[in-house]
Amino acid sequence: MRKTFDCVEMKRQGAARIHERIKDMTFEQKVDYWRQRSEAFRRRQREILREDGRGG
Question: Which residues of the chain are modeled with pLDDT < 70?
Fold first, then answer.
C-alpha cells in the first residue's frame, strides 16, 4: 500500500510556513498575528455555517 496523503507531513509543512512568517516578530506582534488569524478563522466558520444553512 502506498500513501497518497501524509497528514503528519502536511502539519509539519504548515508549521514551517508559519514559523517563517513569524520568526522575526516581537512577542506582541506574534500575539496580534494569532489574534487576527483566529478572528479570520471564526469569520470563515460562520460563513460556512450560513452557506450550509446551519446558522451561525
Answer: 55-56
